[in-house]
């Protein structure tokens, strides 16, 4: 199990200087824990987004999300003498499955197909919270719009913004519902954060985003 | 009118004007939800005095699916004269967390738990 999470550095809305020896720029939004301590209890899954068509890959999101959810119920066993433990296990399983599925769906939809940058999802846990960390590439032209959206999101009242978004979606046909993060925040009480990394080598820069979701247990 | 696939089923019981959902809905975007949206609209557009969505066996719904249900509730709200019932299960945690948002969109909506 991990130590007290309270001591972890939480970065918010800060821009870091380039890392020594590598042209790398970082920018974080929301509640992002920059350095997760080494933990014996974590699970990580990785995908190569272009290896099979998105349509076929889509089914894998649900399978992976359910696998993560099932796997972690091992650590929250049902105690026959405590009826609350059954509810707790079902709640955790459902929350992990929902959050992991939304994160993977987002990553599959928004990763930059011109690079075969892997999508990875990791789930860490301690006695009092679960932390999801998902990394994918982002299309360079979409970074600014995405960051503007995140600024609005982290400054919002999630319930108010969720209802506004639902009303807005009812008025227009959009390909994306923009409900994933909002439902995690409002319905599941999750804390969200993002870190953008831009890596510049001799070729074109690649921007990746790591989305972190903290769920209290 | 019914939709049956490997992972989910949506059926309509015309005696009770109830649309019954089974399984897990994790479809990709609004396009893939079109058959379900069409079925919902087909029933609502007949302007019944009441209709129900039975979600007691809907184990999972992704955010695109939440969008489908929300848009439908807003459509029924605009019709003004349809009494809408949503039946959820206390044993399926996502429903307790997310269905109350539908009632915020349409306060007259009757949310029933079994």
Features:
heterodimer, A: 217 residues, alpha+beta, Heat Shock Protein 90, two-stranded antiparallel ribbon, 5 helices, 38% helix, globular, B: 114 residues, alpha/beta, 4 helices, 33% strand
Describe the fold and architecture:
The complex is a heterodimer of chains A (217) and B (114). Chain A has 217 residues and is an alpha+beta fold. Chain A has one domain: 2-Layer Sandwich (Heat Shock Protein 90), CATH 3.30.565. In chain A, 38% of the residues lie in helices and 27% in strands. Chain A contains 5 helices and 9 strands; from the N terminus they run βββββααββαααββ. In chain A, the strands form 2 sheets. Chain A has a 7-stranded antiparallel sheet with strand order 2-3-8-9-7-6-5, covered by helices on one side. A two-stranded antiparallel sheet of chain A has the order 1-4. In chain A, β8 and β9 (206-216) form a beta hairpin. The radius of gyration of chain A is 18 Å and the shape is globular. Residues 1-21 of chain A have low confidence and may be disordered. Chain B has 114 residues and is an alpha/beta fold. Chain B has a single domain (3-10, 23-86, 97-106), classed as Transcription Regulator spoIIAA, CATH 3.30.750. Chain B contains 4 helices and 6 strands, in the order βββαβαβααβ. In chain B, a hairpin with a 3-residue loop joins β1 (3-4) and β2. In chain B, α1 (29-44) packs parallel to α2. The relative contact order of chain B is 0.17. The mean pLDDT of chain B is 96. Chains A and B meet through α1, α2, α4 and α5 of A and α2, α3 and α4 of B.
Task: Describe how the helices and strands are arranged.
The complex is a heterodimer of chains A (217) and B (114).
Chain A: E1 10-11, E2 15-16, E3 23-30, E4 32-33, E5 42-47, H1 54-73, H2 83-110, E6 119-125, E7 129-138, H3 143-154, H4 158-171, H5 180-188, E8 191-200, E9 206-216
Helix pairs in contact in A: 1-2, 2-5, 4-5
Chain B: E1 3-4, E2 8-13, E3 18-25, H1 29-44, E4 50-61, H2 63-79, E5 83-88, H3 93-98, H4 100-105, E6 110-113
Parallel strand pairs in B: 3-4, 4-5, 5-6
Antiparallel strand pairs in B: 1-2, 2-3
